[in-house]
Amino acid sequence: MAKDTCILCGIETVYDFETHIDNRIGYIEGAGQLCSDCFKEGTTNRNLVTIPENWITKFSNNFELGKRVRTHYWDTHSKDKIK
Fold first, then answer.
1. Residue 24: which residues within 8 A CB-CB, separation 6 or more?
2. Both 33 and 71 in a single domain?
3. pTM score
4. Domain range spanning residue 78?
5. Is residue 10 domain-shared with residue 42, that is, in the same domain?
6. Helix (H), strand (E) at residue 81
7. How many domains are there within the chain?
8. Long-range contacts: 43-48, Cβ < 8 Å, 24+?
9. Would you give the end-to-end CA distance of the chain in angstroms?
10. Same-domain status, 40 and 5
11. In this structure, are residues 68 and 59 in contact, taking their beta carbons and an 8 Å threshold?
12. Same structural domain for residues 19 and 59?
């Protein structure tokens, strides 16, 4: 079975795609799965990104919403990363 990847660092997590989110640790609805390291770090050092509320209903599934959130992040932070 294919494993889910961490939405922050991109490594493979211990969870299969088919594992229900109620049976996972570190899953953020509307964003995706965190690996255990990012989840642990995020509880003490989490930066937040604000998105328009209507995106939650506008994008029909978590994949589309997550993709749009990541695109929004890179669109708004690319100038900071290029320096």
1. 15, 33
2. no
3. 0.51
4. 48-83
5. yes
6. helix 62-82
7. 2
8. none
9. 40
10. yes
11. yes
12. no
